Amino acid sequence: MENIPDKRTQKDYSLSFKLQVVREIELGHITRVQALDKYGIQAGSTIRNWLKKYGNFDYNYTVNQSKTMDKTPEQRILELEQELRLAKKAQSRLEHELSQSDKKVVLFDMMIDIAEKELDITIRKKSDPKLLERMQNKKDKA
User: Fold this and answer.
1) What is the reported pTM?
2) What is the rounded (10 degree) CA torsion for 75, 79, 85, 86?
3) In terms of DSSP H, where are the helices of the chain?
4) Rounded distance between C-alpha atoms, residue 4 and residue 13, angstroms
5) How far is Cα 36 from Cα 42, in angstroms, rounded to an integer?
């Protein structure tokens, strides 16, 4: 009897993995087809969805950027609106990543506190008061 692997869903992939795949494709390091093979992703639609959700390209709207014609004010407005949407999308993704990083910092801080208390060891370096005073004096002189 043939051993058929379980099908994976988008929920099986971490956000960092999805962002890594999107980044590799957008930088031109690999194509979508190569990403399927490289990472064992079963459906091309999975990667297309990630590109739409996390990528820098706006798949819902594109502007014809013909170099042979001058752009009308309306075309320029559409381009600027697209750039604004892309910037907002990137900002949203960066805010999410920052939020995740902030949560990790708090979590790691709590883990260090617990480890120091439970194991009765010092993990964080204790600052030398004299060194801190000298650094403050240098800062005040500047």
Assistant:
1) 0.40
2) 160
3) 15-26, 32-39, 44-54, 73-119, 129-141
4) 20
5) 7
> How many residues does the structure list for the chain?
142
Q: What is the pLDDT of residue 142?
A: 64
The three-state secondary structure class of 126 is coil
Cβ neighbours around 64 below 10 Å, total: 9
Tokens of 26: 């957008």
Q: In this prediction, what percent of the chain has a pLDDT beyond 70?
A: 82
Conformational region of residue 40, where left means phi above 0, alpha means psi within -120 to 50, and beta covers everything else? left
Q: How far is CA 13 from the centre of its chain?
A: 14
Smallest CA-to-CA distance from 35 within 53, 45, 99 is with 45
From CA 90, how far away is CA 88, in angstroms rounded?
5
Type of residue at 22: V
